[in-house]
């Protein structure tokens, strides 16, 4: 399967969607923007929101929409459906056809995430350094006899 080129703008990202996903992403996008992030861009082929570093991401997949927060593990009290995973303190909510996240809750999550970045700084810079990979020994060649 050949990948499509990423959307050029956030509006184009939404316009390229159809059905329930388009409606879902439009609602999420409006809710997140009410929290006044500094920037909304297309990054890594997804909608990404910044405020003193990355804050949130909206990613569409074939059968679901993911809403993720870089400091999402600190937001589980607000939304228990957030599932930890990935680097930093990332946590995501999977939204499928027939399920939803209220716009009020999405805005509340985004405001809390923006506030965390304001207090703690850019999550990508505050993350602990990666452990160095152990060096693999080179394969030794057996001499030809």
The gist of it:
The protein is of the alpha+beta class. It has four helices and six strands, in the order ααββββββαα.
Task: Spell out the blueprint of helices and strands.
Blueprint: H1 10-15, H2 19-34, E1 39-43, E2 46-50, E3 54-60, E4 64-69, E5 83-84, E6 91-96, H3 103-120, H4 123-126
Helix pairs in contact: 2-3
- Order of strands side by side in the largest beta sheet? 1-2-3-4-6-5
Estimate percent helicity: 25-40%
Overall pLDDT score = 89
Q: Which value, in Å, is the CA radius of gyration?
A: 19 Å
Number of strands: 6
Question: How many individual domains?
Answer: 1
Report on the architecture of this protein.
30% of the residues lie in helices and 21% in strands. Strand 5 and strand 6 form a beta hairpin. The radius of gyration is 19 Å and the shape is globular. The chain is of the alpha+beta class and 145 residues long. Helix 2 packs across helix 3 (103-120). A six-stranded antiparallel beta sheet has the order 1-2-3-4-6-5. It has one domain: Alpha-Beta Complex (Aspartate Aminotransferase, domain 1), CATH 3.90.1150. The protein contains four helices and six strands; from the N terminus they run H-H-E-E-E-E-E-E-H-H. The protein has helices at residues 10-15, 19-34, 103-120, 123-126; strands at residues 39-43, 46-50, 54-60, 64-69, 83-84, 91-96.
């Amino acid at each position: 399967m050949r990948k499509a080129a990423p959307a050029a703008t956030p509006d184009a990202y939404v316009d390229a969607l159809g059905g329930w996903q388009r409606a879902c992403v439009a609602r999420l996008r409006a809710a997140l923007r009410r929290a006044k992030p500094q920037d909304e861009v297309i990054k890594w082929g997804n909608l990404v929101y910044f405020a003193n570093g990355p804050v949130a991401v909206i990613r569409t997949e074939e059968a679901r929409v993911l809403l993720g927060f870089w400091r999402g593990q600190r937001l589980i009290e607000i939304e228990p459906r957030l599932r930890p995973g990935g680097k930093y303190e990332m946590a995501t909510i999977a939204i499928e056809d027939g399920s939803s996240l209220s716009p009020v809750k999405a805005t509340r999550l985004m405001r809390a995430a923006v506030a965390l970045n304001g207090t703690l700084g850019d999550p990508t810079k505050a993350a602990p350094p990666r452990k160095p990979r152990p060096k693999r020994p080179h394969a030794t060649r057996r001499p030809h006899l």
